[in-house]
Amino acid sequence: MSLLTSILLLDKPLGLSSNAALQRVRWLLGKPKAGHTGTLDPLATGMLPICIGEATRFAGLLLAESKCYRTRIAFGTETASGDRDGEVVAEAAVPALSEDRIRPVLADFCGEITQVPPMYSAIKHQGVPLYKLARAGESVVVKPRQVRVDRIELIALGSDCIELEVTCGSGTYIRTLGMDIARALGTVGHLAALRRCWVSPFELAPMASLDEVRLWSETGMVGDPPWLVPVESALTGFPILELGTEQTGHLKHGRPCPQIGRTAGVYRLRDPEAAFFGLGEVDPAGTLRARRLLTTGHQAGRPGYSRSDAC
To answer: Among 29, 76, 77, 141, whose CB has the most other CB atoms within 10 angstroms?
Structure first.
């Protein structure tokens, strides 16, 4: 497996922004091109898929996948950012909490729901991230958006907090969900802790700490650790289309393949050696065209990067 067509499943530590974690990984691996998918706040820990090299071509497809979070909502205070690091902007008494009172409220937040994203978010307004406007003391009207919450499970219940496990679709803000749940219970609240357990399709995959990445780098990046996966493993939702030598050549040279004999849709492309080389799309007329292709080839070895000679 080539490092430059891989996804590294990082267990992002507490206190680092997603970009800071990404840059540390890049430095450890010799500064290859890389990008993360699905930003995590500094408060949050957990799975941060980092696409390396040509895997970045497919990063947008990972953003649409389901995610699972474990979170703790602290009641009684609401903050400007919706988490424990923000300035307190509201306080309220905490009513008596019980499973019988909480579970119906949680059920109301399952399915397709409407959320107003928080001001402290990466969503842009006229080209400027909302969090930058918020830090500058500016406020804008944020449009509500539809998001999908598949499951909310009550894990633990305290006198002034609850712990939840949430499975949801892309674009769901757990901070907003926490504040909305608190209000529905007759109080206010904020996130005291947040961990992303997995991003689909990596539900059962292990994650690497920054120390594990460092040790692997220092030992010459030998072997394929379980937390470094081929980019194709993120694309299992697309069916496989095996192609012959001539068809493979056509696509790699930018030419379409007519009369492919498949229904319209997006496919994972395999060459005559059964190696993945990208995604293609069949149109209603049965013509296959390249959508995103790898260029390094599946036989590419690991780059000879080192921290001393990286530019």
So the answer is: 29
CB neighbour class for 285 (10 Å; exposed up to 12, middle 13-18, buried from 19): exposed
Please give the single-letter amino acid code of residue 231. Answer: V
- State residue 301's pLDDT score: 35
Backbone angles phi, psi at 160, to 5 degrees: -135, 20
Q: Letter for the amino acid at 50?
A: I
pLDDT per position as a tens digit, 22-76: 999 999 999 999 999 988 989 999 999 999 999 999 988 877 779 999 999 999 9
Q: Is the Cβ–Cβ distance between 172 and 148 less than 8 Å?
A: yes
| List 11, 41, 180, 271, catalytic entry | 41
Domains and CATH numbers, the chain: 3-64+204-233 (3.30.2350.10), 67-199 (3.30.2350.10), 238-293 (2.30.130.10)
Phi-psi region of 293 (alpha: psi -120 to 50; beta: other; left: phi over 0): beta
Is 41 considered catalytic here? Answer: yes
- Burial letters 247-273, b for 16+ CB under 10 A, else e: bbebbbeeeebeebeeeeebbbbbbee
Q: How far apart are CA 83 and CA 214, in angstroms?
A: 30
Q: What pLDDT is stored for residue 117 in this prediction?
A: 76
Q: Is 84 exposed, middle or buried (0-12, 13-18, 19+ CB in 10 A)?
A: middle
Residue-level pLDDT at 304: 32
Asked whether the beta carbons of 165 and 70 are under 8 A apart, the reply is yes
Q: Is the dihedral of CA 95, 99, 101, 106 positive or negative?
A: positive
